[in-house]
Design brief:
The chain folds into 2 domains: 115 residues, no CATH class; 120 residues, no CATH class. Helices cover 52% and strands 15% of the residues. The protein has 12 helices and 6 strands. Strands 2-1-3-4 form a 4-stranded mixed β-sheet, with helices on both faces. A two-stranded antiparallel ribbon has the order 5-6. Strand 3 and strand 4 form a beta hairpin. The radius of gyration is 23 Å and the shape is elongated.
Length: 239
């Protein structure tokens, strides 16, 4: 079984052709390991058992990452009655010195399993907690583009450094509608001119929030109203 995992991690054309591709793409080294584990577990019909294995305290224990002996890891995993796929997978991580990636691999496997179960995984980051009305509008936009048999799994997190706006991850797609990223572009635009600035401030409630900046003939819309519109368009084109 360990051989199957090793073959799955191989980049050869032969090995790739035998790999059961996950229903969603996961990236990086952890993504490769998670995809290999998914393929191995799929072939043995143990996807759900492996998923349960990866949630056990033993797997989540920080001391496991510091274990360097493959035999010790395998012995501990076997005593806990973990599936053969999980046991061999942990042994392979230890053998390759990748146990420090275990948490990320588990996260990638979780993402694969959510897609396998027909869930559309969405992460929404905002500079402050969204109001109920904004949350409702966002959920409506996501529900309109989700497939009939897909279940939405939306996780909201707060990241003050965004300043305002949203960063939305839909499956393996990334949509940055934050003010921080737009302000960066605005600064780059302003830096290209050595002219004196004459700033005029006005208020327009229909923007809902955020800013609209006009610099000469350049127009930069950082309003919540426009971001919500762009988010709907991005969601439609991304899913």
């Amino acid at each position: 079984m360990s051989l199957i995992l090793k073959r799955s991690l191989s980049m050869s054309t032969n090995a790739v052709s035998r790999l059961i591709r996950p229903p969603t793409q996961v990236h990086g080294v952890e993504g490769r390991y998670a995809s290999a584990l998914y393929s191995a577990a799929h072939k043995r019909n143990t996807l759900e058992q492996v998923e349960k294995d990866l949630q056990k305290d033993f797997i989540l224990n920080p001391s496991l990452k510091r274990t360097k002996k493959k035999e010790l890891v395998i012995s501990m995993a076997q005593k806990l009655g973990l599936t053969r796929e999980t046991v061999n997978f942990l042994g392979l991580l230890a053998e390759n010195g990748r146990l420090n990636k275990l948490e990320s691999v588990v996260s990638s496997y979780d993402a694969i399993m959510r897609a396998h179960k027909g869930e559309l995984s969405v992460q929404v980051m905002s500079s402050e907690p969204l109001s109920k009305s904004h949350e409702s509008a966002l959920n409506d936009a996501l529900n309109k583009v989700a497939k009939t048999d897909q279940k939405l799994n939306v996780i909201y997190t707060v990241k003050p450094s965004l300043i305002g706006g949203l960063v939305v991850t839909i499956g393996d797609k990334y949509v940055d509608l934050s003010i921080a990223s737009r302000m960066k572009k605005l600064k780059e635009s302003v830096a290209k001119t050595d002219q004196k600035l004459n700033v005029i401030y006005t208020v327009k409630p229909s923007l809902i929030g955020g800013l609209v900046v006009t610099i000469g003939d350049k127009y930069v819309d950082l309003s919540i109203a426009s971001r919500m519109k762009k988010l709907k368009e991005s969601v439609i084109s991304s899913v």
